[in-house]
Design brief:
- The protein is about 70% helix and about 5% strand.
- It has five helices and two strands; from the N terminus they run H-E-E-H-H-H-H.
- A two-stranded antiparallel ribbon has the order 1-2.
- Strand 1 and strand 2 form a beta hairpin.
- Helix 2 runs antiparallel to helix 3, helix 2 packs antiparallel against helix 5 and helix 4 runs antiparallel to helix 5.
């Protein structure tokens, strides 16, 4: 009788395989998520901040001459900003995070502009590019 060679099984390999199977399941129930910058933040915060980025960018890139389309994107941006602020303003879990601080700066810039120019004024190219740049910075942190 010829015996077959026996392969040693490394328990570390089994654990890695378990992690690869259980990882997505654990991630599904974990209330936190690791960001691009390596920080662990609440998933709900990240989802809300990403929504603000998306809708605000769409609004800023929209042609103000097409008033109905511009209004739609601006309204979506306002709604996502309101949602973000109602859920995250002053929340200790995120107030010291770079993305939170930078988004607050963006909101203050918009508020300053609209308080001076009026609620239906078109953003100047300078303000628009400054805000788009700030949004890029926020995205790096998320």
């Amino acid at each position: 009788m010829i015996s077959e060679p026996v392969k040693a099984v490394d328990k570390a390999d089994d654990n890695q395989q378990d992690d690869s199977v259980l990882g997505p399941i654990k991630s599904l129930f974990d209330p936190n998520e690791k960001t691009k910058s390596g920080k662990v933040l609440p998933k709900a915060y990240l989802k809300s901040a990403r929504e603000v980025l998306k809708t605000l960018r769409e609004s800023l890139k929209e042609d103000p001459q097409d008033m109905s389309k511009f209004r739609r994107t601006a309204d979506a941006a306002k709604e996502s900003i309101r949602d973000y602020l109602s859920n995250w303003r002053g929340q200790q879990a995120v107030t010291k995070e770079e993305s939170y601080v930078k988004l607050e700066e963006v909101f203050r810039s918009l508020a300053r502009f609209y308080s001076k120019a009026g609620p239906s004024a078109s953003l100047s190219d300078e303000v628009k590019s400054e805000i788009l740049h700030d949004l890029d910075v926020v995205e790096e942190y998320l």
